Automatic annotation (TrEMBL), chain A:
Residues 1-20 form the signal peptide. Keywords: Amino-acid transport, Signal, Transport. GO terms for biological process: amino acid transport. The keyword Transport applies. Residues 26-346 form the Leucine-binding protein domain. It comes from Rubricella aquisinus. It holds the Pfam family Peripla_BP_6. This is Branched-chain amino acid transport system substrate-binding protein. Transmembrane segments: none annotated. It comes from the Bacteria. Belongs to the leucine-binding protein family. CDD domains: PBP1_ABC_ligand_binding-like.
From TrEMBL, chain B:
GO terms for biological process: D-alanine transmembrane transport; L-alanine transport; L-isoleucine import across plasma membrane. Pfam families: BPD_transp_2. This is Branched-chain amino acid transport system permease protein. InterPro entries: ABC_transp_permease, BCAA_transport_permease. Belongs to the binding-protein-dependent transport system permease family. LivHM subfamily. GO terms for molecular function: L-isoleucine transmembrane transporter activity; L-leucine transmembrane transporter activity; L-phenylalanine transmembrane transporter activity; L-valine transmembrane transporter activity. It is found in: Cell membrane. It is a multi-pass membrane protein. The keyword GTP-binding does not apply.
Amino acid sequence: MKKLLAGAAISALTATSAFGMGHGAPVTIGVILGFTGPIESLTPDMAAGAELAVAEANASGNFLMGKEILTERADSTCVDASAATAAAERLITASEVVAIMGADCSGVTTAVANNVAIPNGVVMVSPSATSPALSEIDDNGLFFRTAPSDARQGQVIAEILGERGVTDIAVTYTNNDYGKGLADAFEAAFTAAGGSVSITAAHEDGKGDYSAEVGALSAAGSDTLAVFGYVDQGGRGIIQSSLDSGAFDTFVLGDGMIGDSLTEALGSDIDGTYGTAPGATGDAFTFFDAMAKANGIEGDGPYRGESYDAAALIILAMQAGGEATREAVAQNLLNVANAPGVPIGPGQLGVALQLLEAGVNINYQGATGVELIGPGEAAGAYIEYEVIGGVLTPIGNR
Amino acid sequence: MVDILNALVLFSNFVLIPGLAYGAQLALGALGVTLIYAVLRFSNFAHGDLMAFGTMATILVTWWFQSMGISFGVLPTALLALPFGIAIAAVMSLFMDRAVYSFYRKKRAAPVTFVIASVGVMFILNGVVRLIIGPDDQRFADGERFIVRARDFEAWSGLSEGLALRSTQAITLVVAILIVIALFWFLNRTRMGKAMRAYSDNEDLALLSGIDPARVVMVTWIIAAALATIAGVLYGLDKSFKPFTYFQLLLPIFAAAIVGGIGNPVGAIAGGFVIAFSEVTVTYAYKRFLGHLLPENLAPDGLVQLLSTDYKFAVSFVILVVVLLFRPTGLFRGKVI
């Protein structure tokens, strides 16, 4: 909080007005999210989050001497790679967007990045694609994400286990890209830290009976079971069956398992179970949340803050480069996102734009504490939960 | 000695008790299939969804009871609701018989026509169940959940392995035994049961001796619906109710009926347990079991698991194929399909 105040103070010192200096044609940022499809309930708020950042920059009038920024939405569908590719193609060739905020789901994000964005030299900043596979794509420095890779979550869980002195664990995951990615990442991090995984077994969702799976998992001899599945699906079935047969008492949960329906069903039988989910608690996010609510973004869905931050990074990168071009975004995005520089919180885009114009480095923190590591993805803030007295209780930030 | 006890407890907890309960559920399902095959002479593919329908009716009545505050003490309320579920399923079966099968019976259609008609009935029931209760998981078990808890057993016995006995597993076994005794008494001792067996052996001869075919068909459907509903409710209490898993149960149930010898009630029961124990024993990992029994230096490093649990249904298929190849009449000399 102190740093945020310092940033505000510096902005007051360097305040130079650039109001009303219209500067050439407006520049367009593409917003490609799954407005139809499996996450259609989340995407309107995500898009509104991105547009909130754009509106904030426009209102300050500080962007490239008063240049106006527009947004154009396109539908990724979340699941249909060819539809998403066509939509992105339209944004890039017809609307000539300067960068893309999106896409959302890992599969379509990979398709859009490989087929359209990277060949055309357009930066993509995804707010919500978490597959570890996206860290590996050959992106020419053009793909970024403000959501953490599940590889990071694997590490975080491995660290927590290390601190709790767990050295031997059984792992089960839901049989899809998410579950497999998270289980692989966890196993790599955990064995690297000296732990041993006695068995890794997939489970299918939607079965009536998981006693056979639990029998195999418990036969391996570990006392603790890591469950990387879905709380309303096979993950809960595995835990229920483990409790019934006395196979395991303590469970380690991935983000898909963190949900109130788990404790509603199992209550204090799973006391002492712990896990992680992405998210931030703290002043910056509270501030963003209030700002979003004040601007008509009513929902509490995930990835709103990440969307705001993604759009903000694109805007700031252009300002740092001094021009509204695709190259400027690509070259400056990491610089504005990371230290060194003046920390910038949510709602301070106008200040940040002024600082950049004056040649001062900034370190954009935004709503979610942005810190891009490795191939340009969020380091990832996670909340550690523990079941205490039959309730999922946040016990710390990671 | 302690090691042997530990191994036995472990084996009972993960193989014997779940296998017995699952076997009893399959046996009840297979009895229904075999009965329809024996009397009406066709493979009723709608049986899995008839189970789902009867279970759904029972669940709805259970919820109604619960909302009125009626409970069955330590036993699940669903047992009280079961007779109502059976009645509703029986009405549905008779309606389907009147609407679909009686038409083909009058025309003396070939058995394969009946089989395909039953596939149609299966899809209709499938849709009806999903329309009424939805495709999701429903849990309706209440009452005391455990007879023996794993942790309590460990504390009581001082062994390192726990043994859990859920009340639903015990209820499954007790109800299955009672139902089987009642069914055999009915088939062998009552006038109607004998009429059904006569009709099954030779339809024309039965007609000549004054047996009313319409009554035989009606009673057969009512018994089949009762068996399906009981099997479905026991499975749902023990595991959970989801329309799709009941549809999938069709495979092990048919495997059980055919392995035992389709048309033969004793065979259906034996087949149910053969299939259940094959599925459970082949997919269980014996690492800890052998670890208790063998000296330390011989204890296995691997899991000693013959097949991954993903291949559970494949076990039923393989047994089915082997039996059909080498002993098409099944273990207990049923009919040849």
